[in-house]
Amino acid sequence: MADRQAGTISATARLAGAAAVALGLCIAPAATAVWASEPAPAKSTRAIALELNRLDDAGQGCRMSFVMRNATGVAIEALIIELVLFDGEGRVASVISIDPGLLPVGKTRVKQFDVAGLACRGVGRLLVNDVPVCKGEGLEPAACLAALEPTSRTGVPLVD
């Protein structure tokens, strides 16, 4: 009887194993087909890093320090970025344009800009509003705006 039970268990285990393999073979191709039909994730085309690194009170204003990196593959000869500064309640506090100058390919640059008449504690958020100027071989303002990757190391978000 013990041999018979052992034989039954073995046969049951083999049957369960075969069923699992068969089931696995039936499910796997369907799952693969679903995954294969999904579009591949798009590669990021954002190649101009713009990081708000610091906000420091400077006299009667606020000094903003930005870290920028150009990974477009083309030297940026001229770039003007329009930023909107919002206060802590979401109201527009100021609209400024920053001109970081030449941004060589692969080079990281730190640029500081002073905003007169606005205390840093009054800045709640910065918005990249526009790029009216972007010059370089094959570059245009709309492409540079799309390529900007805004980030912030401060408690003040920099968004697009």
Walkthrough of the structure:
The model is unreliable at about 1-45 (pLDDT under 50). The strands form two sheets. A four-stranded mixed β-sheet has the order 5-2-1-7. A four-stranded mixed β-sheet has the order 4-3-6-8. Strand 3 and strand 4 form a beta hairpin. The protein has about 160 residues and is of the alpha/beta class. It has two helices and eight strands; from the N terminus they run H-E-E-E-E-E-E-H-E-E. The radius of gyration is 29 Å and the shape is elongated. It folds into two domains: about 1-40; about 50-160, Immunoglobulin-like, CATH 2.60.40. About 25% of the residues lie in helices and about 40% in strands.
Note poorly predicted spans.
1-44
What is the CATH level 1 assignment of the largest domain?
Answer: Mainly Beta
What value does the average pLDDT take? Answer: 80
* Fraction in beta strands: 35-45%
Q: What is the CATH architecture assignment of the largest domain? A: Sandwich
Tell me which oligomeric state these chains represent.
single chain
